[in-house]
Amino acid sequence: MTQSNNLTREPINSAKLGKRMLFGAAIAFVVISAFLISAPAGDPAWGKFWMLRPLVITPCAGACGGAFFYAMDYLSYRGGWIKTLAIVVGVFGYMVALWLGTVLGLAGTFWH
After folding, report:
1. Rg (CA), the chain
2. Looking at the DSSP assignment, which residues form a beta bridge with residue 111?
3. Nearest to 58 by CA among 22, 104, 14
4. Domain boundary assignment for the chain
5. What is the distance, to the nearest Å, from the Cα of residue 41 to the centroid of all Cα atoms in its chain?
């Protein structure tokens, strides 16, 4: 008796992954920039460059959220309600990553 391995793995489309990560980072950068422009001065202990930490950490988290959305894209090829579920889970995962990146970036600099 021969065993057959029917598990197939689709290759990672690095161009599509890069676009999703870049788009996720761009959205995160715009969101944190809009927040920081309207914000008053932060903790004086951080000096005049206190905005650098949130401007670096939040887009990195947005890029991770974009990668998660790309990972959920594999489920959307099945169609039907699974496609809808994959999109909803992907958007929710991106929002969680953006929220966590914003909190990590602003903790200690703007929030005490």
Report:
1. 19
2. 107
3. 104
4. 51-112
5. 26
Mean pLDDT, residues 82-100 taken together = 92
Give the count of beta carbons closer than 10 Å to the beta carbon of residue 6.
4
Residue 55's nearest CA partner among 68, 71, 42 is 42
> 21 near 66, Cβ under 8 Å?
yes
Cβ atoms within 10 Å of 19's Cβ, excluding its own:
13
Distances (CA, A) of 98 to 27, 28, 31, 32, 36: 9, 7, 9, 10, 15
Question: What's the pLDDT score for residue 2?
Answer: 66
Distances in whole angstroms, Cα of residue 18 to Cα of each of 24, 25, 39 = 10, 10, 31
Of the pLDDT bands very low, low, confident and very high (cuts 50, 70, 90), residue 112 is low
